[in-house]
Amino acid sequence: MRTFPVREELRRRTPSTNLLRRADDDHARNYDDDCRHHHDTGCDRDNTHDDRGPANSSFADNDDNAEDDRAGHHHGADHDERPLGTGAVDNGLAYHPSVSAARTFADVLAANEAYADDFSLPGLDGRAAKGLAVLTCIDSRIKPLAMLGLQPGDAKILRNAGARVTDDVLRTLVLASYLLGVNRAMVIAHTDCRMTTASEEDVHAAVSEAGGPDTRSLAFLVTNDPEATVREDVRRIRSWPYVSRLEVGGFLYHVDTGRLTQLC
Question: Are 185 and 171 in contact (CB under 8 A)?
Answer without folding.
Answer: no
